[in-house]
Amino acid sequence: MPSSTPPLSRITVLSGGVGGARFVQGLLHGLRSGAVPGGSADTEVTVIANTADDWWIHGLKVCPDLDTLMYTLGDGIDVERGWGRRDETWSAKTELEAYGVEPTWFGLGDRDIATHLVRTQMLEAGFTLSQVTEALCRRWQPGVRLLPMSDDRVETHIAIADPDSPSGRSVVHFQEYWVRLRAAVPAETVLVVGQEAATPAPGVLDAIADADLVVLPPSNPVVSVGTILGVPGIRDAVHATTAPVVGLSPIVGDSHVHGMAAQMLTSIGVEVSAGAVGAHYGPRSAGGVLDGWLVDTRDADQVPGLEAVGLRARAVPLMMSDPAATAVMAAAAAELVAS
Ligand code: GDP
Ligand code: CA
Prior knowledge:
This protein is α/β, with parallel strands linked by helices. It folds into 3 domains: about 10-50 and about 195-335, 3-Layer(aba) Sandwich (Rossmann fold), CATH 3.40.50; about 55-150, Orthogonal Bundle (Helicase, Ruva Protein, domain 3); about 155-195, no CATH class. Helices cover about 35% and strands about 20% of the residues.
């Protein structure tokens, strides 16, 4: 490690679900193995999670991105699926279907339901989502401080064309767009209900201001990182922090690796490319949120264009095939903005 590398006591990550969780898992691996310059096993990692995918279903409050983070980092995840509990069973779902209870397209696993029962009971007893998350993490010990972006209800809805509706369109909850419609119909608009009135959860702004490094992992730039940055105060905090801010592209080649980032980018008028996403976040020197942006080696041709708009940019392999490969990505991200 070069002696000039500044020590990383605190790293803060703004995360969605699967992409963000896999990144943080690799980051922790890299910190523990000494691969991340300036970092160590003692580096404190704070993860600010998107909560705009949350919804109420069958009377339960479900927080998909918080749970994906908690289960991935706490070694309870179904690794193949990337979400939900390992060794899951689906008896409750089958029983609900037998009662004809809608919606049948959203499955809650039996083990997973326990998490939602604890969360819902605590919320109904008056605890905040931050307090509930802390309580759930006592079991899962994720090795990071996990914070919801806000304790307020914020929900992403998607407007889609609907010839059967008098207005020609209908609006569905994010989960319905993703799970029932499989993001297969074009998204006309992304509406983040409740966002303007939301406030950052306790600790969120301090975690950004007091960090030594802020990371935007390869999460969905619109409905994961975008919704976090959209909570009033958060974008300004990222823009203003004394820490360097680095991001990693979720777009490799001309599409996302998993998920639906391409559909979401198209709906907000951003080209589906690693370079366009970096430019969309923008350099802090011009009002944006980034100092550095990593793209995959397949997108190396986009580095000069990113540098021309004022970003530090580098092309490295960005496939999170396992925690060791992801640790190398985390190290490259820290290095890009280290000096
Ligand atoms: P979600 O909330 O579960 O959708 O997860 P995130 O928003 O955190 O991450 C979704 C994004 O992760 C998608 O846009 C994917 O393209 C991206 N992603 C998933 N796996 C990889 C990978 O191995 N490499 C890169 N660069 N991006 C990935
Ligand atoms: Ca999500």
